[in-house]
Structures are given as structure tokens and as C-alpha cells.
TrEMBL record:
Chief location bin: membrane
A single GO BP: dicarboxylic acid transport
This protein's UniProt keywords: Cell membrane, Membrane, Transmembrane, Transmembrane helix, Transport
Membrane-spanning residues: 12-29, 41-62, 74-100, 135-155, 175-196, 216-237, 249-270, 296-315, 322-342, 348-370
Name of the protein: Dicarboxylate/amino acid:cation symporter
Localization per record: Cell membrane
MF-aspect GO terms: symporter activity
Organism domain of life: Bacteria
GO CC field: plasma membrane
SUPFAM superfamilies linked: Proton glutamate symport protein
InterPro entries listed in its UniProt record: Na-dicarboxylate_symporter, Na:dicarbo_symporter_sf
Membrane topology category: Multi-pass membrane protein
UniProt KW Cell membrane keyword: yes
Length: 402
């Protein structure tokens, strides 16, 4: 039994700590408030490392990707399919969450810490800063990601000098990941303490909203894994593609659920893609990249987190917030999800970009930890359908070239 749960060890420990923190905060509010500085120290440690983590990780990963620029048509197909497969589940779950509001009247009493301007998005300010020093602030993570992507592309196109810089960035990334792992060692204590302080002054009904949000995610995931996968497989191979997909999809899905890792499932995914008739050269090139780029499950849970928190805080989820939600969801799937060790990067990205209270971070972590296994299944299963679509696109491109 423990061997089966081993991949979820960190999530189970974290959820247990959050549960204990929530109980302490609910049963003894004074103790919960007393524990807040402990949680604040942990979050501050994360905030101090977030800028170098994003800058180095994203830049180095993009720099390595541009080594494949000679495979331009395939790479463009991979990126286009990955972005589409991030947008579709994000839009779907936002629509369902707005109809079946999981908060249902429960409101977090955090109005005094809210950035009241967050509902009116300054897209220029979100995407850029007017000074280099602005990139060194956690409040400008989105601008930092954009500049890191541009820098990565420039490094990848700079020949021998670029390769030297890329090697240096890889070494620096290893050191930063070690720093992150040291900080994350105290994550259960830090987040448990912070959640205790959050729950100290909140309605106990807040716990019920978690169950509704998680139930909504699981129901949407089931729908997306059945109808969505069928549609993608049809796009990739017509009705024969649908039949061959469903004949072979179980093995990688079960492996993903058991390992909770798209990367650990990659050998099974590669083998399955070949059994499904995907050309070997397409599978060998596309699937290792799709593991990092195609994360529809991450996009879906990111979008749900934003809608859920906005509802809990009583904020208006307008068109501008919806557009930023899609942008954050795509980046979470397309860039953030590929940052190794960045367990809380998505939560911090959401909070800092949208100007939300720090007290919402443990809530976002709870949703992410419980849904992690199902999110991984979505990622892996749709790596297969994405490889079918890319294979078909390359076949069309080949015929067009002739």
C-alpha cells in the first residue's frame, strides 16, 4: 500500500499539515494567529528565491529548445497544439465554475489586504516594466517570464557563445533548485502555520467550498478525458485514430496516476504512441517536448484556482480578469509547469500577478495537491492525442511540400 502511495508522499504530508493547521486555526484562533509569523517566514523565503528561479529556469529551458530550430515545422506544431490544449480546458472549467459556483456565498474576510485595483487589469504593466530593476520584483513575474523567453531564444541563436552561456545557466539552475529543495523541506510547517492563521478568523463553511471545487474539477476532468480525448484523437486520425487511441490509452493513464509524473510516464507514452501508429521520428521528437509543454491538467486547475479565489473574495470576474486568467493558465502549462522543483511557483504566480492576498496561497496549494494525480493523467493522455495531431499535421505539410 505504501509503495502505491509513495509518489504522493510529499502531497500527503503537505495536506496533513494543512489539515492540522486548519483544525488549530478553527478550534483555537488565538494559537492560529500566533503561528502566522512562522508561515510568513516560509513565504518570504519563497518570495526571495522566486525571481532568480523564474529567470534562470525559464531562460535555460528555452535556450535548450531553440537548439531544435532546424526542426522548425515540427516545433511550431508542438507549440501551437500545446497552447490550444491549454486554452480549451481553461475556458471550459472557467465557464463551469461561473455557472456552478463552488464558493456559493462563502466569503473570505480578507478585504483589508486586497489590492482593489486588481480587478482592472493594466495589461501594459502586466506584460512589461519601464526599467530593468522592475524585473527583479516578484510583482512583475509575467514581465520577467516574457523577458526570460526572449533571452532564451537569443542565447539559443548565438552559436558557440550562446552554448557557453546555456551551460552556465544549467549549472546555476542546479544550484537554485537545491536552494528551493532546502526551503521546501519546511513547507509543511510553514504552510500549515499560515493556514492556521487564515482559518482563525474564517467561516468553517470554507471547508465545504474546497469539496465543491475539487468535485467540480474531477467532474470536468472526466468529461475532458472522454469527450476531449475523443475529439483530439479524431483530429489526429479520424475514426480509426479514435479507435486506436482508446485501445491503448489505459496503460499510460494508469502509469501517470501511479507515478504522478509525466516525465516518469514518458517511456510508456513513447511505447504507446508507436503502437498507435505515430511515426517513430515524430514520437521521438514531439513527446519529450510535450512532456514539458503540453500540460492541460495544469492549465485547468490554474484557471479553477483563480475563479474560486475571486469568488471567495467577492471580486468581480470580468472580461479583463478572464483574459489574464487564460494567459496565466497557458503560461502555467507552457512554461511554469516545465520548471523543475517549482512546486509553489504557480500559486505565487497567480497571487503576485493578480494582486491577491498572501493568505490565499495555502488555499491554492490545497486545491493543487489534491488534484495533482488527475492533472497528471490529463497531461499524459493528451500528450498521446497531441502526438497524433502533430503526426497528421506533418503529413499534410509533407504532401503540401511535394
Amino acid at each position: 500500500m505504501w509503495h502505491t502511495l509513495q509518489p504522493y508522499k510529499d502531497s500527503l504530508i503537505l495536506l496533513t499539515a494543512l489539515l492540522l493547521g486548519g483544525l488549530i486555526g478553527s478550534l483555537s484562533p488565538e494559537t492560529g494567529l500566533w503561528l502566522k509569523p512562522v508561515g510568513q517566514i516560509f513565504l518570504n523565503l519563497l518570495f526571495m528565491i522566486i525571481v532568480p528561479l523564474v529567470a534562470v529556469s525559464v531562460t535555460s529551458s528555452i535556450a535548450r529548445m531553440t537548439d531544435l530550430k532546424k526542426l522548425g515545422a515540427i516545433l511550431v506544431s508542438i507549440m501551437a497544439v500545446s497552447i490550444c490544449m491549454a486554452i480549451i480546458p481553461a475556458v471550459a472549467i472557467v465557464a463551469l465554475a461561473l455557472v456552478f459556483n463552488p464558493a456559493q456565498g462563502v466569503t473570505l474576510d480578507l478585504q483589508q489586504t486586497l489590492d482593489t485595483g486588481a480587478a482592472h487589469m493594466d495589461f501594459v504593466g502586466l506584460l512589461t516594466t519601464n526599467d530593468f530593476s522592475g524585473l527583479l520584483s516578484k510583482s512583475n513575474i509575467l514581465a520577467l517570464i516574457i523577458m526570460s523567453v526572449v533571452s532564451g531564444i537569443a542565447i539559443g541563436q548565438s552559436g558557440d557563445d550562446g552554448r557557453k552561456v546555456s551551460a552556465l545557466l544549467d549549472s546555476l539552475n542546479t544550484v537554485i533548485m537545491k536552494i528551493v529543495s532546502i526551503i521546501m523541506f519546511v513547507a509543511p510547517l510553514g504552510l500549515g502555520a499560515y493556514f492556521a492563521s487564515t482559518m482563525a478568523s474564517q467561516d468553517p463553511e470554507l471547508v465545504v467550498t474546497f469539496a465543491r471545487a475539487i468535485g467540480l474539477f474531477f467532474a470536468t476532468s472526466l468529461l475532458y478525458l472522454t469527450l476531449g480525448s475523443t475529439c483530439y484523437a479524431w483530429l489526429g486520425g479520424g475514426y480509426p485514430g479514435v479507435r486506436v487511441f482508446w485501445r491503448h490509452a489505459l496503460a499510460p493513464a494508469v502509469t501517470a496516476l501511479g507515478t504522478s509524473s509525466s516525465l516518469a510516464t514518458l517511456p510508456v507514452t513513447l511505447s504507446t504512441a508507436l503502437k498507435m501508429g505515430v511515426k517513430e521520428e515524430i514520437a521521438d521528437i514531439s513527446l519529450p517536448l510535450l512532456v514539458n509543454l503540453n500540460k492541460g491538467g495544469a492549465s485547468m486547475i490554474t484557471a479553477l484556482k483563480i475563479v474560486f479565489i475571486y469568488s471567495l473574495l467577492g471580486l468581480d470576474f470580468g472580461v479583463d480578469v478572464f483574459m489574464v486568467t487564460l494567459l496565466i493558465s497557458v503560461l502555467s502549462a507552457f512554461v511554469i509547469g516545465g520548471v523543475p522543483g517549482g512546486a509553489f511557483l504557480g500559486e505565487i504566480f497567480i497571487v503576485t500577478t493578480l494582486g491577491l492576498p498572501l493568505e490565499t496561497i495555502p488555499i491554492l496549494v490545497v486545491l493543487g495537491a489534491i488534484t495533482d494525480g488527475v492533472s497528471t493523467v490529463i497531461n499524459v493522455v493528451h500528450d498521446l492525442t497531441a502526438s497524433q495531431i502533430i503526426d497528421r499535421l506533418q503529413g499534410w505539410n509533407g504532401r503540401a511540400a511535394k
